[in-house]
């Protein structure tokens, strides 16, 4: 049997892999192990599969990769290591955050020695892992960056390069490494690991089998034994049936897209054509308490009345602001990708000003950007640096973050605090808008 | 249908049958009362120049899923719309619609059923802290895709949801310019009079503003510059996926994707776009053949695949063909509104002069249509049953251009990318804001531009895609 046939079968098997089924992954590992002569072709198929499969199926495929490099090692680790940065990071950018955590967990184990092996060298060589580690670090740095002084959604001002790690960065990074040639590694002696090891689950921080909240899917219907049987038929595997672990219970059934719900509508062409007048009340009569200004409805409960009161307050405050607004308005800038993904909408009956502990901390101190455009470039009167303008989602206007207005002059809150408020631990002297922050070191803004 | 001031001809293309409704023929500028029975709708067309004002006197009524407040006069210009009532309503119509009639022949039951089916999925998603339904609407031009998306969005807002609305149709903008592909999380009521509403402005707004994520595609047709459309779609899909994943409210609400009519003819592209957004449900509006073709892309006899439900919806009899002239006026209106606002929310952009040497303008070259063989990946062993073959790599090219008279009256996208970035980054960069080139002064080597933001133009890459077409009298 030549490489292309085996590779073809391997790809078919990969395409059937739609969950983190250990049995299926182990089967694929066994197949790969028995066909080390065709390792190069199989690796290419696996890489291609990880690259092109749907995001929700990337993790199972990566677990196959993990299994090959962990349980078989060379030559698979050599072949797969060559393009691992692209393979891993490409997938990483496309999957959900939960999956990213899982991928990170898997990645961490690659830097450690094989479990149950006397060899202390890591699963994958440092030269292979460090680039991924670097890239993940940079993203991690972005995620964990204390955002106390930075606004929740900074206007897309040019960020210093170390901050601008983003999808764009990753993309660039990927693009700069894309053209890869598949050079065969120097021949190595293949020492098969003891067979039982293949079937012991890695006791290391095993990749938690994630449930895919975003991607409900049905349990795999094809039992792994059937898959193996098919492969055996194809002459691919000489594994005795008994070695195949008993078909595991299918992974907990993720709640699939239910065909019918409380409404009694199923997603069929017939069902959506049935007239259901009784449902319409949910849009109208269930919420009889209507805002006379915009038509929005609220339930006739105490909570509904409260929400309506807040909503009316919002109408009032907007009207007041519109009539008080003597200056002209203009369109604001759009956000960039990262800022937009971090944006959270607030409904117009939301609490205003923000008063939850978490948000007060995040929101910090701000003043509305002066509407007089002559003042737009006014710097802090203490450090003479300009203010950071951001769109404030709750206030619905552009604001200067970390700023205070005292006696007609604008200051950085931290500068003002430092000069007038003593040590900065209490921030007593700080006239703040939204409760301000306390205990925040006041030195970050000053540059001497 | 005719646009006053452009042709003056009879409303030949209008699908409205004047004999059908109570308010049969177009009326003179006047105040009339129209009473609609339960589950009927009042269809009207208001021209750009002669607005129509409609007030709900009694009962309840909604415009594309957004309920009218009682006794509030809403003014419509350049609008073709229908006011539907579930329980019956009396409307007061002021002004002279180009055409208007009432009818009970609507497809609202289908829309409502879809909504409640989606709502079931959202409730389930909420309970398991999972993701709500991701819905894509596909259909030919003028089949009511945007209206359906609006109805579904409006209903879900009524139920307290925050769906992400994605517009993949470059021929009309959503909270932005024509030529843009956007995603917006809707958390507040959709503007009755102005399409969806307004993107953020520097001051207060009576209808809450909505923040879109904007990519500038700069071509009219979805396939115009082949790879670029998919490249931007993937970027948008990444951002939407991340947002849905991290934003609990939006995540359980899911997303609603509007698509261009041309997509209905490219089934493989439908499948790829659906995969980018992890779509659960495809709503195919219109002919059964289209439904069958799309259905074939998502076979449901693959048990272990995430099911993609394909549903066929009837095209509403209220759909009217929008002529090129109307669409052009619609776009120019959209561009004007970006800079100058709309009635009730006027904006003043800033006029400034910039030297040719202060800016870097790139032109997207869509002429270089790649041959089909370039598009197919070199993995020739990929046979047709490989559904997830890599999407074609963008072959769009960026060319740095010196300002010339060609730019006059054109809208340029100020991207987030730096002029020194590589061209792929610039092409795939989201938009900061748009500027309008009011004048190109070649002798003084400077441009007169209109910008919504004051101050110096940031050192960002400006992108010009050749679409939308120029608006000659914007500054006038």
From TrEMBL, chain A:
Domain of life according to the entry: Eukaryota
Residue ranges annotated for the CID domain, each copy included: 2-140
GO CC entries: cytoplasm; mRNA cleavage factor complex
Pfam family, one: CID
Region (Disordered): 421-448
An annotated Gene Ontology molecular function: mRNA binding
A single BP term in Gene Ontology: mRNA 3'-end processing
Protein name as it appears in the record: CID domain-containing protein
Organism listed in the record: Microthyrium microscopicum
Taxon lineage: Eukaryota, Fungi, Dikarya, Ascomycota, Pezizomycotina
From TrEMBL, chain B:
Biased composition regions of type Gly residues, renumbered to the chain: 1-11
Keyword line: ATP-binding, mRNA processing, Nucleotide-binding, Nucleus
Domain of life, per lineage: Eukaryota
GO MF annotations, alphabetized: ATP binding; polynucleotide 5'-hydroxyl-kinase activity
Clp1 C-terminal domain span: 347-469
Subcellular location(s) per record: Nucleus
Biased composition (Acidic residues): 376-389
Cellular component, GO annotation: mRNA cleavage factor complex
Residues annotated as binding ATP: 41, 80, 142-147
Occurrences of domain Clp1 P-loop (ranges): 139-340
GO process annotations (BP): mRNA 3'-end processing; tRNA splicing, via endonucleolytic cleavage and ligation
Domain Clp1 N-terminal per the UniProt entry, residue ranges: 38-124
Spans annotated as Disordered: 1-39, 370-390
Keyword Ribonucleoprotein found: no
Main location: nucleus
Gene3D superfamilies assigned: Clp1, DNA binding domain, P-loop containing nucleotide triphosphate hydrolases, Pre-mRNA cleavage complex subunit Clp1, C-terminal domain
Family stated for the protein in its record: Belongs to the Clp1 family. Clp1 subfamily.
Summary of subunit composition and partner proteins: Component of a pre-mRNA cleavage factor complex. Interacts directly with PCF11.
Role played: Polynucleotide 5'-kinase involved in rRNA processing.
The protein's name in its UniProt record: Polynucleotide 5'-hydroxyl-kinase GRC3
Organism name: Microthyrium microscopicum
Lineage: Eukaryota, Fungi, Dikarya, Ascomycota, Pezizomycotina
């Amino acid at each position: 049997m030549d490489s292309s046939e085996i590779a073809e079968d391997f790809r078919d098997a990969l395409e059937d892999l739609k969950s983190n089924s250990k049995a299926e992954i182990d089967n694929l590992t066994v197949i790969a192990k028995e066909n080390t002569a065709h390792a190069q072709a199989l690796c290419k198929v696996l890489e291609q599969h990880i690259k092109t499969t749907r995001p929700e199926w990337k993790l199972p495929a990566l677990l196959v990769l993990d299994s090959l490099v962990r349980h078989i090692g060379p030559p698979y680790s050599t072949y797969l290591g060559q393009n691992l940065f692209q393979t891993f990071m490409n997938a990483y950018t496309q999957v959900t955050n939960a999956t990213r955590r899982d991928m990170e967990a898997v990645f961490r184990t690659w830097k450690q020695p094989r479990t149950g092996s006397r060899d202390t060298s890591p699963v994958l060589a440092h030269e292979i892992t460090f680039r991924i580690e670097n890239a993940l670090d940079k993203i991690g740095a972005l995620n964990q960056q204390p955002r106390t002084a930075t606004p929740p959604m900074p206007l897309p001002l040019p960020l210093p390069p170390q901050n601008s790690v983003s999808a764009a960065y990753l993309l660039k990074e990927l693009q700069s490494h894309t053209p890869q040639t598949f050079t065969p590694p120097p021949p190595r002696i293949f020492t098969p690991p003891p067979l039982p090891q293949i079937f012991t689950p890695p006791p290391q921080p095993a990749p938690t089998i994630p449930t895919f909240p975003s991607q409900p899917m049905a349990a795999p219907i094809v039992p792994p034994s059937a898959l193996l049987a098919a492969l055996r038929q194809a002459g691919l595997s000489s594994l005795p049936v008994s070695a195949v672990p008993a078909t595991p219970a299918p992974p907990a059934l993720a709640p699939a897209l239910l065909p019918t719900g409380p409404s009694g509508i199923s997603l069929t062409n017939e069902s959506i054509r049935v007239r259901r007048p009784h449902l319409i009340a949910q849009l109208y009569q269930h919420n009889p308490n209507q805002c006379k200004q915009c038509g929005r409805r609220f339930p006739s409960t105490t909570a509904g009345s409260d929400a309506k009161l807040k909503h009316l307050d919002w109408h009032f405050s907007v009207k007041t602001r519109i009539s008080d607004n003597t200056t002209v308005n203009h369109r604001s800038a759009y956000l960039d990708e990262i800022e937009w993904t971090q944006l959270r909408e607030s409904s117009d009956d939301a609490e205003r000003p923000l008063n939850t502990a978490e948000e007060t901390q995040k929101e910090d101190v701000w003043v509305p950007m002066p509407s007089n455009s002559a003042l737009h470039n006014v710097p802090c009167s203490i450090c003479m640096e300009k203010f950071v303008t951001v769109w404030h989602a709750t206030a619905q206007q552009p604001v200067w973050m970390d700023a205070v207005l005292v006696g007609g002059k604008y200051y950085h809150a931290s500068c003002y605090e430092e000069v007038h408020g003593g040590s900065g631990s209490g921030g007593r002297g700080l006239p703040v808008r939204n409760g301000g922050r306390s205990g925040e070191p006041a030195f970050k803004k000053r540059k001497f | 249908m005719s646009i006053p001031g452009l042709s003056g001809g009879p409303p030949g293309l209008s699908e409205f049958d004047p004999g059908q409704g109570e308010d049969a023929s177009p009326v003179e500028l006047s105040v009339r009362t129209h009473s609609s029975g339960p589950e009927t709708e009042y269809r009207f067309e208001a021209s750009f120049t002669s607005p129509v004002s409609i007030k709900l006197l009694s009962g309840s009524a909604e415009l594309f899923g957004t309920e009218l407040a009682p006794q509030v006069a809403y003014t419509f210009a350049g609008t073709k719309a229908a006011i539907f009532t579930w329980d019956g309503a009396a409307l007061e119509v002021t002004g002279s619609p180009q055409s208007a009639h009432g009818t009970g022949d609507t497809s609202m039951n289908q829309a409502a059923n879809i909504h409640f089916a989606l709502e079931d999925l959202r409730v389930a998603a909420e309970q398991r802290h999972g993701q709500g339904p991701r819905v894509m609407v596909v259909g030919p031009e003028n089949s009511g895709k945007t209206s359906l998306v609006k109805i579904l969005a409006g209903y879900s807002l009524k139920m307290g949801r925050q769906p992400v609305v994605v517009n993949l149709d470059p021929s009309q903008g959503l909270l932005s310019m024509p030529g843009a592909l956007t995603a917006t999380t809707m958390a507040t009521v959709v503007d009755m009079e102005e399409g969806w509403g307004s993107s953020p402005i520097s001051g207060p707004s009576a209808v809450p503003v909505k923040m879109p994520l904007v990519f500038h595609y700069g071509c009219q047709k979805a396939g115009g510059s082949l790879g670029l459309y998919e490249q931007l779609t993937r970027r948008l899909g990444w951002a939407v996926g991340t947002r849905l994943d991290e934003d609990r409210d939006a995540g359980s609400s899911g997303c609603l994707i509007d698509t261009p009519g041309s997509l209905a003819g490219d089934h493989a592209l439908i499948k790829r776009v659906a995969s980018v957004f992890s779509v659960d449900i495809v709503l195919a509006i219109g002919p059964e053949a289209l439904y069958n073709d799309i259905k074939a892309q998502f076979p449901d006899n693959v048990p272990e695949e995430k099911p993609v439900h394909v549903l066929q919806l009837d095209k509403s009899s209220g759909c009217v063909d929008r002529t090129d002239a109307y669409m052009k006026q619609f776009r120019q209106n959209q561009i004007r509104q970006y800079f100058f606002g709309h009635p009730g929310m006027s904006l003043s952009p800033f006029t400034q002069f910039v030297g040719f040497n202060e800016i870097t303008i790139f032109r997207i070259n869509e002429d270089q249509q790649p041959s089909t063989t370039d598009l197919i990946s070199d993995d020739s062993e990929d046979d047709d049953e490989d559904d997830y073959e890599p999407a074609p790599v963008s072959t769009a090219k960026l060319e740095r251009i010196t300002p010339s008279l060609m730019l006059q009256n054109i809208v340029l996208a100020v991207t987030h990318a730096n002029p020194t970035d590589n061209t792929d980054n610039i092409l795939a960069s989201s938009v900061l804001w748009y500027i309008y080139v009011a004048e190109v002064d070649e002798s003084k080597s400077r441009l007169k531009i209109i910008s919504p933001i004051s101050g110096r133009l940031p050192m960002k890459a400006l992108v010009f895609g050749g679409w939308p077409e120029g608006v000659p009298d914007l500054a006038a």
